[in-house]
Specification:
Elements: H1 10-18, H2 23-36, E1 41-46, E2 58-63, H3 67-75, H4 83-89, E3 95-96, H5 97-103, H6 108-119, E4 123-131, E5 136-144, H7 155-172, H8 188-198, H9 203-210, H10 214-228, H11 233-242
Antiparallel strand pairs: 1-2, 1-5, 3-4, 4-5
Helix pairs in contact: 1-7, 8-10, 8-11, 9-10
Length: 248
């Protein structure tokens, strides 16, 4: 990348992304651009976008978050209480994570979650949602690995980077089978399993709660993964919540 006066401009970002031909290269360009804007922690997710093939959707399609935090988040099913995700659902503009604490009525557990995120190496967080006509399509979550840093003043400019990135991403994703409301139908048993999966319960505990065999739970979980086009429990929980299949 070339920089004018040592700065990386939005115009240069547009020019750089116009030359990419693969999603992998786009991710590299986007991560580098965010780093030049001061954010070395990047998480990009597509939760429910009917324009995209199911294979192009998922939680954490990009994640430069610390691996320890990612594992902790997934293992404890924190998607069900994550206040950043819940705030993004009703947002159309970028927001600072600190805004959530000042403007939302958070539970003690949600406030503790934000402190845990900082302890996990995520500071100065900002969310950039991609709103859809009915629910959240996805978004980008950004943070820094150091507490003290120069704050990003122009969030609308930051959102412009993210929305342009998403537009290019959608252009690069090959056409295919679309994920539509009619394409995904969960059985009652799958809904029951998904509900408990979203609460962070293990297959063994779910089996005990539903009085079924652990193998049956695994069968339902694999069916949910296949129908949602995901490969992990966190992504399944996010799609279940954002798509209205379950409510916590």
């Amino acid at each position: 990348m070339l920089y004018a006066n040592g700065q990386y401009s939005f115009e240069q970002f547009i020019d750089d992304t116009s030359r990419v031909r693969t999603v992998e290269r786009l991710f590299e360009v986007f991560i580098e651009a965010m780093a030049h804007l001061g954010f070395d922690r990047v998480n990009f997710s597509v939760l429910r976008d009917l324009d995209l093939d199911a294979s192009a959707q998922g939680f954490g399609l990009i994640s430069t978050y610390p691996a320890v935090w990612q594992d902790y988040y997934a293992h404890n099913g924190l998607a069900r209480i994550d206040p950043v995700v819940k705030w993004a659902v009703g947002s159309v503009r970028p927001f600072r994570w600190t805004d959530i604490e000042h403007e939302a009525e958070l539970t003690r557990r949600q406030r503790h979650f934000l402190r845990e995120a900082e302890e996990g190496g995520l500071y100065n967080g900002i969310g950039v949602p991609f709103p859809g006509p009915k629910t959240l399509r996805g978004g980008v979550a950004l943070a820094t690995s150091v507490r003290k840093t120069r704050p990003m003043e122009n969030l609308d400019l930051l959102a412009a980077y993210c929305h342009h990135f998403y537009a290019v991403y959608k252009r690069l994703v090959p056409p295919g089978l679309r994920l539509s409301p009619a394409a995904v139908s969960l059985t009652r048993a799958e809904q029951e399993v998904l509900f408990r999966l979203a609460h962070g319960l293990s297959n063994e505990i779910i089996a005990d709660r539903l009085s079924i065999k652990a193998g049956s739970v695994d069968f339902h979980v694999q069916n949910i993964f296949r129908k949602f086009g995901v490969n992990n429990r966190t992504a399944a929980a996010m799609k279940g919540l954002m798509g209205g299949y379950i409510e916590l």
